[in-house]
Amino acid sequence: MKKFADLTEREILAIAIASEEEDSRIYLSFSEELADRYPATSKVFVEMAEEEDGHRRQLLEIYQARFGRNLPPIRREDVGGYYSRRPTWLLKNLPLDMIRSQAEAMEKDAQRFYIQAAEAAKDVGVRKLLGDLALVERSHGEKANALSEAILTESAREEEGRTAHRFFVLQYVQPGLAGLMDGSVSTLAPLFAAAFATHSNFSTFLVGLAASLGAGISMGFAEALSDDGSITGRGAPIIRGAVCGFMTTLGGLGHSLPYLVPDSWPNAFWTATAIAAAVVFVELWAIAYIRARYMDTPFLKAVAQIVVGGVVVLLTGILIGGA
């Protein structure tokens, strides 16, 4: 890998040309990714891609005037200390904020690199060249802001806000709610069955821990493998699976942790059971609230569906454990 200090002006120009070309293609990929969900922002990235391509042509003209038509086969990855980028543009259904942050980071990284390199350069010509490139990258960010103001009208922003909210619900709220419901409800029966069968707090906790972790792993894999998001637009499967698995485990652990009350305490079993029952009550009402808040379900209907169902599962576990 070559050091930046060892690069010639020819190689620096070649890297700049290749970088501008790559950035243009990245912005076009962002535009294609957002075309259906955020058409106004998609147009912004098309304009930014055209800006990058225009700067590439300008740099290419300077290069050809100085060094001819042959570009040396060097890329920024071949230079030690050059900024690197995560290939997030290869992923599907990226959140809009992540794409905008990625684009902003691209411009800032390039500008910062050119400024630092210009300060470290000893050759006057190279220093001037790097300074000019830094100004070019800064102008890219200013141009992007101007394009956003021109293209993203108030109605377009409102529409994209509704789309972003829908995407948030599909990628985070829905899998998280499914996990919380499964973890909070499905683990009730084995937990309270073990509690009333053994009257041992620690044994009950181990059952709840195993049920919570097992359910979390199962629900996480099920959510991630059930839909890759390419057709439904529900977002990255890994993120949905992680959210669902975590919330499932959290839902089960909520009413399992009270059974860490030491068995040596007076009335330890009934103390832990009372706390666990209170936690279950809070969990079920929280699920009902989330359904009413994000899933457009009437609150009383959500309460009837979740609380009544949870109580039935709870009583089932108690009856089995006490048999």
Task: Write structural notes for this entry.
The protein has 323 residues and is mostly helical. It contains ten helices and two strands; from the N terminus they run βααβαααααααα. The chain has a two-stranded parallel sheet with strand order 1-2. It is elongated. The N and C termini lie far apart (72 Å). The relative contact order is 0.10.
Task: Characterize this entry briefly.
With 323 residues, the protein is mainly alpha-helical. The protein contains ten helices and two strands. The chain is elongated.
Rg measurement, Å: 29 Å
Q: Percent of residues in helical segments?
A: over 70%
Q: H/E order of the elements? A: EHHEHHHHHHHH
- By DSSP (H or I, 4+ residues per run), the number of helices equals 10
Report strand order across the widest sheet. Answer: 1-2
Q: Main sheet, how many strands, which sense, barrel?
A: 2 strands, parallel
How confident overall, as mean pLDDT? 79
Low-confidence stretches: none
Q: Name the structural class.
A: mainly alpha
Span between termini? 72 Å
Number of strands: 2
| Percent strand | under 5%
Shape: elongated
